[in-house]
Amino acid sequence: MNIGVIFEGNLTSGGGFQQIVNMALLLDKKKSSNRKFIFFTTNEQNQNDLLNLGIEGNIIKFSIVQKLILFLRKQNRIRKVLDKIGLVYSLDRYFDQFRIDLIYFTGGAGMALKLEYKNFICTVWDLCHRDHPEFPEVRENGEFEAREIVFQKVLPKAVAVIADSETGKKNLVKYYNLSPERIFIIPFSPSVTINQTDEKLKDDEINIK
């Protein structure tokens, strides 16, 4: 089985992305002869960061025409017309080039809106916009609506959803009526740089002694 692991956003910004880095390292260790993880990202900086971790990443790039087709294919009626005239390009077909069987979105799953037939797993690290809708950062610039569009359309289609805790799992069931059997918990883990710093401190302590 080939599993595509997707990184959206910037891997070097914020604690949430550190969890994604940890997940990349864990998955890379779990590869085997019958289970292969192929990593994808949306920007070159992430590709460099993955290489620094010893992981090869592929950059997802689309031409302007391909982006337009992907946008238009979101509508069922338009998609049928495009199929008839031969404009069948889809995000799924992009992943077919790599023989991907399952797609795992490590954080954020906006790209899943463009999938048509591939099975996928998505991750929800928090539901702050639902828990604290009074916060300006989730009320301004349509942020609340943007998150809801993704969650309401993507989560019910996911073969599995990753949550950070039992509370997160319960909220996913409460807010989006998801089946508890499809929600799996992966707790937050420390940044990899903490372990590196700890090892350096130990070395410095030995040198002092």
List the helices and strands and how they pair.
Blueprint: E1 2-7, H1 14-29, E2 36-41, H2 44-52, E3 57-59, H3 64-72, H4 76-84, H5 91-96, E4 102-105, E5 119-124, H6 128-131, H7 136-139, H8 143-154, E6 160-163, H9 166-176, E7 183-185, H10 192-208
Parallel strand pairs: 1-2, 1-4, 2-3, 4-5, 5-6, 6-7
Short description:
The chain has 209 residues and is α/β, with parallel strands linked by helices.
Cα-atom Rg, whole angstroms?
19 Å
**Per CATH, what is the topology of the domain at 2-125 and 188-208?**
Rossmann fold
Fraction in helix: 40-55%
Instruction: List the uncertain runs.
Output: 200-209
Order of SSEs, N→C? EHEHEHHHEEHHHEHEH
Q: In what range is the share of β-strand residues?
A: 15-25%
| Strands, count | 7
Q: Biggest sheet, strands in spatial order? A: 3-2-1-4-5-6-7
Rough outline: globular
Assigned CATH architecture of the domain at 2-125 and 188-208: 3-Layer(aba) Sandwich
- Biggest beta sheet attributes: 7 strands, parallel
Supply the CATH class of the domain at 2-125 and 188-208: Alpha Beta
Description:
This protein is of the alpha/beta class and 209 residues long. It has a domain at 2-125 and 188-208: Rossmann fold (3-Layer(aba) Sandwich). Helices cover 46% and strands 15% of the residues. It contains 10 helices and 7 strands. β2 (36-41), α2 (44-52) and β3 form a beta-alpha-beta unit. The longest helix is centred in the C-terminal third of the chain and has 17 residues, at 192-208. The model is unreliable at 200-209 (pLDDT under 50).
